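Dear Dr. H.,

I hope your travels went smoothly. While you were away I took the liberty of generating a structure for the chain from your last submission, since the lab meeting agenda had it listed for discussion. I wanted you to have the full record in hand beforehand rather than looking at slides cold. The sequence, exactly as received, is reproduced here:
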Amino acid sequence: MTDPTRRPSVLVVDDETGILQTLEILLRAEGFDVHTAHGGKAALERIPQLTPDIIISDVRMPAVGGVEVLNAARAHDAEVPVILMTAQATLQTAMQAVNAGAFYYIQKPFRNDELLAILKRAAEHRALRLENKSLKREIKRRDRRSAPAPVGAHPAWIDALSLAEAVAHTESTVLITGESGTGKEVVARYIHELSMRAESTFASINCGALPEGLLESELFGHVKGAFTGAVKDKEGLFTAAAGGTFFLDEIGETTPATQVKLLRVLQHREVIPVGATDPVPIDTRIIAATNRDLEEEMKRGAFRRDLFYRLNVIAIHLPPLRERREDIPLLAEAFLRRGALTRGTGDSKALSAEASAALLEYNWPGNVRELENALERAVILTAGATIQLAALPERIAERRSEPLIADRVAATPTLEVIERAYIQWVLQSEGGNKTRAADVLGIDPSTLHRKLSRYGGEA
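The corresponding predicted structure, in token form, is as follows:
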């Protein structure tokens, strides 16, 4: 709810010092919290800093005019009422101002009581819009509280979700760690949906999926002519997610040069587009994720310590699926039910006892993502209502046919078993990076890919 005792803030914009001083005295006497900007360019800098309740701006000013101030103000805060004033009013310019979104258009010279009446209406308009927005946010917040959390009942998973829920309402930077496929983006979206930023954008990018130059353009934006092919200015995702949340997945894959720029974003809350010199302020909550051990990466000199400490304000670790096997039936049921809703077929398919046992026995190197993909495949290959063992991927079904470790007679391990264990150990040591693991093993990446497929690992 809005505070009735709060003084509405007003930003007065004009290139004439006398008008600024006169309006500042007048409006302060009437109970407004007044700020001034000498010219349109100064206004563009002050609007993000102040987020005023009302803006009064002259139309004709050097370099940056009143309509540009209006556009910038509404881009920053769509609810702010902007009053434009000019000494050369015409019907055409008045219509242009109103069409551009101006709250009112007043001609100089104006009577003080006329301007004050307009300002009071603008303040009431602003208060009502903010109160309405606050009520809608509260309704959505209550709805989100009753919405189901990401699926899982294992204590380690519940602990991770509890921490996510506790920090959701804050503005703290969050670092989510865990193996590939454990649900890092799912938890990031859950934090966003529970936050006060839920009405705004949730943007995400996989930092390991793009080369350095393209990644920086996507993150920070670029100006026309910054590089070959930059034919126009491009907004980066940090600014595109204004008011919302930006999820940086696989941040451990970034280069040292990109890490320096990310550190600046976290320290100063601003970005410098590629090819530009002036910083652009941002209003974005940052959530990062990685499947690497960043502390080991820091020891190797591959990740900056200062960036790590900026990111690691709140750390949430997600356990691998093999460590929470009791969640497999819950996740399977949720995926099958979601698949039925997507297809519009009503009842979801069920797993046979043998297929369910195979899911429980498999080691799930690809974690929850691999389980979801395996079930999607099984549903497609199943004509009836029950998913049989044969419909599951071969690597999972074959594991079911093997005797359990407890039932095996102790024997000398085969070369294949030793090789499989060694490959998995190297892969884990390299944080799941297959290219580096192949280098350590002294084999071609394609050879490693085939071996992982054969052993039931994440290809």
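Two observations you may find useful: The radius of gyration is 29 Å. The longest helix spans residues 112-146.

With kind regards,
E. W.
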